[in-house]
Design a protein that fits this description.
The chain is α+β, with helices and mostly antiparallel strands. Among the domains are: about 110 residues, Sandwich (Immunoglobulin-like); about 300 residues, TIM Barrel. About 15% of the residues lie in helices and about 35% in strands. The strands form 12 sheets. Strands 20, 22, 24, 25, 27 and 39 form a 6-stranded mixed β-sheet that branches. The longest helix is centred in the C-terminal third of the chain and has 20 residues. It is globular. The relative contact order is 0.10.
Length: about 775
């Protein structure tokens, strides 16, 4: 691949100034992990000595570094040092170190990791500061931990294990105790290209919230290009500049201390070279293909679109406009009226949306089939249709969705999408094939995708909240997903359930089995064991008795369950036994559903008898076992599964915006193949507050994605639109998976056999859109023939 050089852009320049200059003592012995004459590493305990070697050529300082190279099945790398404190106290802990990476995947398991032992005998586990995955030069991770209790001992680990694999070098670790002032910790520079060829995103972190700062980008002559100031524990600055900066001057002040920094912006970050040297090009791509603003068309990129769908189905594709070095000022799109060869009009709807781009958040769990390390803008939000511009050297996406109505005649329909670029028209031929069968009104795929009222109403507090909920539910129902909420503490309105059932809903949660909150929290995940008193059980009865009676009047209990004990361990088993007994004795037509560890406990020890207090089990996809699940179903249970911030590559997951879109679709095929009874996902609207997208533009620099254990974007499948939530590309691919599940369900064992063409194991599955479409077509043609 050829690259264009951005001389001042850094894929990610991450550094942190040595705290030795802060007059604090590094508490680690031999922090640069040097080896002595006997081949030992003084001060450090070495785990799996054969998992690493010493590199005297590649090092951050001193004589050598540690280097580990592993694949997914390789032995984990780890070193540890223990530091004890004679006089335990609650002073902050600052810790981190340096690493260099080469093709590292699964980055969050590539980290500095603390286990803390408090003076009262309790522990705080897994305090993590992670490096970025991918390929990068020496990079420092650094974090400040503020303990709530006095610390008697710290175990300081450096780890490269589990999902993390590739090659990494390690050197120069730091551990300090004491109150920080205005020190700058981790920081990074990233290019804003193609939004701005000279623009830079600076992300700097401090260790306290009252740091006052002034930052100034300057060119090589010292001329100021941009300035910002503020107060807080972080700077997130998108600086648009007329020239390339050479350095950032930063002054900080807190706790009576003032510091100054001169940070050099002087590394290269390779971005793909744009083959369009002038003008523009219009091309198309599959809906399962990730296309970023620096994804450019190949010579054989398609110039037309062909899609296939059943009656009552949605299907999408992408129209892409790539600009040369000069920006395109105006683009608009006109969708055609489709007709067959005889002139019969297509009975259905066509819709287009603009692809929105959000900033990449570090550290992230990189996917080997994901975006390049130098990229900053990632696609996912779908913004309402309107005229737009295309930045120079950028690819801008248009998301087109076709829906065939139930009365649509089977056959092929044709038309031209008109793309008007600065007044010049380009036609994109579109062919739509409609199969001769319809998807069922009620979804075949049992799902529990959680659209949470607490977060929704926090983001949109004004107006009719019931209407706002209905608006959000409609998005989920349009995507053939149940608009559910496993965390809800207030049962859903009957009128909402009846509406959703008419639109296809097949499962819903009545409530989370926790005490009714006195206030209105954003959500309640689980409660402490101590709250499960006899009085609480009476509260459950008083709340559920009249509600379940109302559900029965409307024949809704067959879709209903109560949820609880989210990912709780075996110390909750006795309480779950009592809840299960209550539900089965009082509401036998309502299921009790948990993601507790009972399934995992049975998998580890099938002889256990205290792990059956679930009607519906729900393990992580990577924990699921076909044989155990079959045995549980034989006993009358259901077995669902779920993903969240795990599992990671090589497993399929759609939680992260870093992952291929196709994985959201493939998971439905895996669900059918493994006879799973349903799919749960914990959150789709994980953002809060008054922030709204600027819908006049496609790049959204001020929205920061969630990051849960390095899975960036987890819980965010809807985004903060001006007039309400807007959907996403990931959600559209999950919708397509739900529709594929309808195909499979209608085809029975015929479809199940064909699933082997999609996946041979849970970690060996296709990421080729054409393969999915080929097998879908085979099923669609069979169903059309045998309707």
């Amino acid at each position: 691949m050829r690259f264009r050089s951005l001389s001042f852009y850094l894929m990610v320049i991450i550094g942190a100034l040595s705290l030795a200059c802060y007059c604090q003592e590094n508490l680690l012995v031999n922090p640069s992990v040097e080896v002595d004459a006997a081949g030992r590493v003084p001060g450090w305990s070495l785990h799996n000595r054969e998992s690493f070697t010493f590199d005297r050529e590649v090092k951050h300082s001193g004589e050598s570094s540690l280097v580990a190279e592993r694949d997914l099945d390789g032995k984990p790398f780890g070193v540890m040092q223990e530091v004890e404190f004679e006089k335990p106290d609650k002073s902050p802990v600052m810790f981190g170190g340096w690493s260099k990476a080469e093709n590292v995947v699964g980055g969050f398991d590539y980290n500095v990791y603390l286990d803390v032992f408090h003076d009262d005998g309790s522990n705080t586990w897994a305090i993590i500061s992670a490096w970025n995955g991918g390929t990068h030069d020496w990079e420092k991770t650094f974090r400040c931990y503020w303990p709530q209790k006095p610390i008697a001992k710290i175990q300081f680990f450096v780890l490269f294990r589990r999902a993390a694999h590739g090659k990494a070098w390690f050197d120069d670790f730091e551990l300090y105790r004491g109150n920080p002032d205005s020190q700058l910790g981790e920081y990074s520079f990233q290019t804003l290209a193609p939004l701005s060829e000279n623009g830079v995103f600076f992300d700097g972190k401090f260790f306290r919230k009252d740091v006052e700062y002034v930052a100034s980008f300057k060119d090589a002559s010292g001329k100021e290009l941009a300035r910002t100031s503020g107060k807080g524990d972080r700077i997130r600055w998108h600086a648009l500049m007329a020239a390339k900066p050479a350095r950032l001057d930063l002054s900080t002040e807190a706790a009576g201390n003032r510091r100054t920094y001169e940070l050099i912006v002087g590394f290269e970050s390779p971005l793909p070279e744009n083959p369009i040297k002038s003008g523009y090009r219009v091309w198309t791509a599959d809906s399962m293909t990730n296309v970023s603003p620096v994804t450019y068309p190949k010579k054989d990129a398609p110039l037309s679109a062909f899609i296939e769908l059943a009656k009552a189905e949605y299907e999408s594709f992408q129209v892409l406009i790539t600009a040369g070095p000069q920006a395109i000022k105006s683009v608009n799109v006109a969708l055609p009226e489709l007709k067959d060869r005889e002139g019969t009009m297509f009975s259905g709807d066509l819709k287009w949306e603009r692809v929105g781009y959000i900033t990449r958040r570090r550290p992230y769990s990189r996917h080997p089939d994901g975006y390049g390390d130098g990229e900053f803008w990632l696609p996912d939000p779908l913004l309402p249709a309107r005229e737009f511009l295309v930045h120079g050297n950028a690819t801008q996406g248009v998301w087109v969705t076709v829906q065939a109505k139930r009365d649509c005649k089977a056959g092929q329909y044709f038309g031209n999408i008109e793309v008007v670029v600065d007044g010049e028209k380009t036609n994109v031929p579109l062919t739509v094939r409609v199969f001769d069968f319809a998807l069922p009104t009620t979804f075949s795929y049992p799902t529990a995708f959680c659209i949470m009222d607490g977060w929704l109403f926090d983001a949109y507090p004004d107006g009719d909240l019931n209407a706002r909920r209905r608006q959000a539910w409609d998005i989920m129902l349009d995507h053939r997903l149940n608009p559910d909420d496993i965390s809800r503490t207030e049962p859903p309105r009957i009128e909402d359930l009846l509406y959703a059932r008419e639109r296809g809903m097949n499962r819903f949660n009545i409530m989370n089995m926790v005490p009714k909150p006195k206030r209105k929290p954003l959500w309640v995940c689980y409660s402490a064991k101590e709250v499960y008193t006899p009085e609480l059980f009476e509260e459950f009865k008083s709340r559920l008795d009249p509600y379940v009676a109302e559900l029965r009047k409307h024949d809704l209990t067959k879709h209903a369950y109560v949820y609880g004990f989210d990912e709780r361990g075996e110390d909750y088993n006795p309480i779950m036994e009592k809840i299960h007994k209550l539900v089965k004795e009082r509401y036998p037509d309502v299921a009790f559903f948990t993601t507790s560890m009972m399934y995992k406990q049975l998998k580890a020890n099938p002889g256990r008898t205290d792990c059956y207090a679930n009607d519906w089990y729900c393990p992580l996809t990577s924990v699921h076992d076909d044989e155990l699940s079959a045995k549980l179903r034989a006993k009358g249970h259901q077995v669902w599964w779920y993903t969240c911030c795990g599992p990671r590559h090589p497993h399929a997951n759609f939680s992260s915006i870093e992952y291929p879109f196709i994985e959201g679709r493939v998971l439905a095929w895996l669900s059918y193949q493994h006879r799973v009874d349903g799919f749960l996902f914990w959150h789709v609207n994980l953002w809060r507050g008054p922030y709204r997208f600027d819908e006049s533009v496609c790049f959204q620099p001020d929205f920061e994605s969630s990051s849960i254990a390095g899975m960036v974007g987890d819980g965010q499948f809807l985004y903060p639109g001006v007039d309400g939530p807007v959907p996403s590309i990931r959600l559209a691919n999950i919708r397509d998976g739900s529709e594929d599940y309808d195909y499979l369900s209608l085809s029975g064992e015929y479809g199940r056999k064909l699933c082997s063409g999609i996946a041979t194991t849970m970690t060996d599955f296709t990421r080729d859109p054409s393969r999915v479409r080929q097998i879908r077509r085979q099923i669609g043609e069979m169903l059309s023939k045998n309707k």
